[in-house]
Amino acid sequence: MGKLNIKLAFLLLLVNFTYKSTAQNNTVLSTESLLVKTNTSVVLTGETLYYQLYCLNKTTVFSDISEIAYLEVINDRKESVFKNKISLKNGIGSGDYFIPTTLTTGNYKLIAYTNWMLNNSQNNFFEKDFAIINPFEEHINMTIDSTSKKVDVYKNETKNTAENILLKLDKEKYSKREKAALVLPKTLDRGNYFLNIRKIDFIPAYSDNETINTDTNLKQEIKILPETRGEIITGYISPKIANSDLNSKIVTLSIPGKNFIFKTAKTNSTGKFTFLIDKQTSSSDCYVQLSESDRENYTIAIDKTPSPDLSNLIFSNKTSISRKNLKAIQERSLATQVENVYFSQKKDSLIEAINTDFFFQPTEKKYQLDDFERFRTFKETIIEIVTELNFKDYNQVPSLYLRDSRYNITQSPEPCLVLVDGLQIQNINTLLNYNAYQIESISVVDRPYCYGPKIFNGIVSIITKNNDFATIYSDKNILKTMILRPEPAKVYFEPKYETSNSLSRIPDYRYQLLWKPNIALKSNEMIIPFHTSDISGDYEIMLEGITEAGNYIHFYKTFKIE
């Protein structure tokens, strides 16, 4: 695994060098663009805005350049009120944003971009208008427009005029809490689609006024690295003592937890370092430190994630919402409040990241401490159980070393890399008296190990039972920060009344009956079930997506709940 990580680091450097060299030679490079579709263009505080992203280019349809996209919500003062990372798989991603009650009624922009897009001299990014209504405000500032009408956001599309023929339901009318079945016919073109089923409440909606930059030429020098293999985290070290050397210092990054991330990087002559994170975890807690004997002589900082220039964004001064829409807003707000009261019974499910092997596996020897007689402290446990290790002072600090048990000698003057839940520990004093009953396992790599730019004299990886050692550990030389991480994948809540009695006494005031992103259609008929709610009225089914040929298409159908 050490060789694999060296290869990844080399490929990243090669990609960076190639992009820079190509750009400096004024050669045309492929660009990409983003298309974002949402479940609605008017959302109330307390509701959730769902979105589907397509990263595209003219060569492969779905872009194979970026694996990370960024999405932001911008208010009319051109301030970012929400920012998120989205993992892209084959150019496709999705997510959601719960609208907090701290946001005021008004016009907002949703923008999306990749790092690669920001290298375009024309400030390339996707933008889309939408409105937020905060019904809890005493005075909702809305333009009075007695002629406002519901805008059908699909009327401007030129593709697919036979929607009602293609989408089929088992019935045209349903009772409350009834199971329905939507049939997607096999005649649909192969591609990626998303399904949006929600109530028609006649609150005026924005038309599809999206701005997508589709330029294909990029000739300038690349300043922002494309995230082609995962997230890129950059930062720099600064000296506390004048004329200190900044070059070739080893920096480590830890995101602790059960499925922890540990990365190493080397600084350049100006103290800059770059990490590539190619593993998904749900944690945003990040610990960065110098893996050097003089680490107390430097400070560490993490760069902010790049953002586009928002100075040219133009916001409308008017909305199409009038006073005659207040009843519809009040009804929808009441339904939202009821749904939020029962949120704990209707939670979405997070899709846990696959537990990939740690970078040192399968070269380690693992001790499951419950298989041995337990000792009270970590030091006693090492002495009595882990025969490959020995304690010895290094720079007047107790450290762990590998030893050859045959001759009882230390194998190297350098201590081992010690990780606890993925956090590097450089002062073993904090572990000596640690309660060993809180330790689940200790893994040892009993030979020198090359990982990134450094060769470690073996590895000791300690996993605690609660994976919480970082929360109690203190080291003034470690930078603890929060980094923006990709939103974890979800399976959105869908009631199943025919199999569950637990929901029978819980109100169902859903306006959004179903949001199902990332539907891969491959010329096969697909049946998608869903359940109606307690809210009667007219509902609309919207199926949208992009085909493998690069065509954006949509289909819609209406039905009633009585």
Supply database-style keywords.
single chain; five-stranded mixed beta sheet; mainly beta; disordered N terminus
Report what the structure shows.
With about 550 residues, the protein is mostly beta strands. Helices cover about 10% and strands about 35% of the residues. The protein has a five-stranded mixed beta sheet. Strands 11-36-35-13-33 form a five-stranded mixed beta sheet. The radius of gyration is 28 Å and the shape is globular. The termini are far apart.
Please describe the topology of this protein.
Layout: H1 2-24, E1 33-38, E2 42-44, E3 48-57, E4 61-62, E5 68-74, E6 80-87, E7 92-98, E8 106-113, E9 126-133, H2 163-166, E10 168-169, E11 173-174, E12 179-184, E13 191-199, E14 231-239, E15 250-255, E16 261-266, E17 272-277, E18 285-290, E19 298-302, H3 326-341, E20 349-350, E21 365-368, H4 378-384, E22 389-394, E23 397-404, E24 409-410, E25 417-420, E26 423-424, H5 429-432, E27 439-445, E28 449-451, E29 454-456, E30 459-464, H6 469-472, E31 479-482, E32 490-491, E33 512-521, E34 526-531, E35 537-547, E36 552-561
Parallel strand pairs: 2-9, 11-36, 25-30
Antiparallel strand pairs: 1-3, 3-4, 3-7, 5-6, 5-8, 8-9, 10-12, 12-34, 13-33, 13-35, 14-17, 14-19, 15-16, 15-18, 18-31, 20-32, 21-27, 22-23, 23-24, 25-26, 27-30, 28-29, 35-36
